[in-house]
C-alpha cells in the first residue's frame, strides 16, 4: 500500500530541505511572513473572476496556477488524491456554483499518478492494520483516461450542480507540462 517516494538521502541532498532543528512548517510560516510583507490587498470578492472551478490531483508536481495561466482570484481549486470526483468534490462544486457563481468545470488527472499504484485492497489492508474499515472508497484507477471520463460523468449527472454544459477533462503530462484533453467515447 506504500506509494514510492524519494529516499531520505535524496531529500536531504536538496539545499532547501529543512534541517533537523527546523520543521517544514516553521519554514512555511517564515515564508508566509515574507509574503505578507510584500502583500497588497487586491480588494477582490470571493467569487472567482473567471467563473471556473478546477478539480485536480493533489500531486506535488502540478503547479495549477502556472500551468493554466491563472492569477489570484481567478478560480476555485479543488484538489484531492487522484483529482477524483467524490461526494466531497460535489459538495465543493455545488457551493462553488450556487453560492459563488462559477459556471465552468475543468477536471485534471495526470500521468504517473500515485492512484495507479494502489488498488481497492488498500481499504482491506488499512482495516487489517488499524481494526477499522474506512467508510470512503479509495478511488484507485488503472486507466487514467477512463477515470477522467468517469469524473466528467459524475459531474454531469449530479443533481446538485446547476451548470454542467461546460465540463471538460484533461490528463496533465508531468514530464512535458502539457494537458491532453479527454473526449467522451
Ligand atoms: Zn495524482
Q: Can you tell me about this structure?
A:
The protein has helices at residues 8-12, 24-38, 64-67, 87-98, 121-130, 144-156; strands spanning 52-57, 75-80, 104-110, 167-172, 179-182. It has 185 residues and is an alpha/beta fold. The chain has one domain (45-182): Beta-carbonic Anhydrase, Chain A (3-Layer(aba) Sandwich). Strands 2-1-3-4-5 form a five-stranded mixed beta sheet, covered by helices on one side. The longest helix is centred in the first third of the chain and has 15 residues, at 24-38. Residues 57, 59, 82, 110, 113-115 line the site of zinc ion.
Bound compounds, please? zinc ion
Q: Biggest sheet: strands side by side, in what order?
A: 2-1-3-4-5
Mean pLDDT: 92
Name of the level-1 CATH class: Alpha Beta
Determine the CATH superfamily: Carbonic anhydrase
Amino acid at each position: 500500500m506504500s506509494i514510492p517516494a524519494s529516499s531520505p538521502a535524496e531529500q536531504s541532498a536538496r539545499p532547501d530541505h529543512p534541517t533537523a532543528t527546523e520543521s517544514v512548517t516553521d519554514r512555511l510560516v517564515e515564508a508566509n511572513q515574507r509574503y505578507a510583507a510584500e502583500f497588497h490587498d487586491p480588494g477582490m470578492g470571493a467569487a472567482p473572476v473567471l467563473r471556473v472551478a478546477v478539480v485536480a490531483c493533489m500531486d506535488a508536481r502540478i503547479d495549477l496556477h502556472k500551468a493554466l495561466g491563472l492569477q489570484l482570484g481567478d478560480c476555485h481549486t479543488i484538489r484531492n488524491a487522484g483529482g477524483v470526483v467524490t461526494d466531497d468534490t460535489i459538495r465543493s462544486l455545488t457551493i462553488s456554483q450556487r453560492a459563488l457563481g462559477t459556471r465552468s468545470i475543468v477536471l485534471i488527472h495526470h500521468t504517473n499518478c500515485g492512484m495507479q499504484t494502489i488498488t481497492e485492497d488498500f481499504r482491506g489492508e488499512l482495516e487489517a492494520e488499524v481494526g477499522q474499515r474506512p467508510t470512503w472508497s479509495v478511488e484507485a484507477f488503472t486507466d487514467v483516461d477512463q477515470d477522467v471520463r468517469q469524473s466528467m460523468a459524475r459531474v454531469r449527472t449530479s443533481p446538485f450542480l446547476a451548470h454542467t454544459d461546460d465540463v471538460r477533462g484533461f490528463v496533465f503530462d508531468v514530464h512535458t507540462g502539457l494537458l491532453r484533453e479527454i473526449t467522451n467515447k
